[in-house]
Amino acid sequence: MTARGFAAFPKVKRRIATTWWGKAWVQALKDTALDTGMLNLGRRYAHAGVVGPVTVSPGRLHAQVHDDDTAYSTTVSVPVLSEVQWGRFLDRVAEHSGHIAALLDNDMPRDLVLAAEESGVDLLPGIGDLEPDCDCDGWELPCRHAAALAFQVGWLLDTDPFVLLLLKGKPEQELLDALRDRVAGPVGTRTPVVVSHEQAGQLPARPAVPATTPVVLAVEPPPGFEAADLVALMEIAATRARALLSGTLEG
C-alpha cells in the first residue's frame, strides 16, 4: 500500500484553496454538506490547528482531529478510478507533451481534466463523492471534524495535484512509469514540492510543529497485518510525535 503523510498545519488566520482544482474540491464538499452551519464550523477547525498529520492513500484521507481534549479518528473516502479509466486518462496525458510538462510542474490543466471527463474519467469529486466518517457522536454529513480535514486537503491539492491522483488510486511513481511506457523519450522529473504551512501571527494556538516536506510512505505490511492497520499505526506514531514536540504529551 502507498500512502503519503503530511505534517499537521499550525493555526492560521485565514487560508483558502486558490487553484481551480482546489476550489473544485471545496465546492464538492459544499455541495455534499447537509448542514452549512456545521461546514462553517469545520472551516474554523481547519484554521484552528486542531487537525493532526494528514495521511493520503488511494480512496482515503485520514487524520486525528482534536476537540475538547479528545482525538477523533476522522476519514473522508472518495471513489477510485478503475484500471480501464486510468488507461484512458494516461492516454489523454500522453497525447500532449504540454500536459506532461504541466503535471511535472505541479499544475493540473483544466483542458486535460475536461478531456478526461469526455472519456468517462472523473478526477474531481462531484456531489456525493466525498464520504465522511468519524468516531465522534455527530450525525451531520460531514461532521465538523471531517469538514476540517476536507478543507485542509483542499490546501494540499493547491500545492501538489499528485495528491489528488494518489487519492484517485495511483501513486506518483507508478503514474510516471506508465507515462514513460506511452511516450517516446524521457518523461522527466517532477519539481520538488514543499507544502507551505503559514504561521498565524499572534493567535494563541497550541504550539505549532515546524513544517516539513511531505514524506512518501511506500511500504508493504508485515505478515499478519492489514495495510490499513499499518497506516493506522503510522498515524498514531505521527500524532504522538506531534504531541511530544508541542509539549502536550506527558510521560
Automatic annotation (TrEMBL):
Query: Out of the domains of life, which is the source?
Result: Bacteria
Q: Does the keyword Cell membrane apply?
A: no
Q: Looking at the keywords, is Isomerase present?
A: no
Give the residue spans that cross the bilayer: none
Q: Which InterPro entries match?
A: Znf_SWIM
Q: Which residues form the SWIM-type domain?
A: 119-154
Write one Pfam family the protein is assigned to.
SWIM
Task: Give the keywords, sorted.
Answer: Metal-binding, Zinc, Zinc-finger
* Name the record gives this protein: SWIM-type domain-containing protein
The root-end lineage is: Bacteria, Bacillati, Actinomycetota, Actinomycetes, Pseudonocardiales
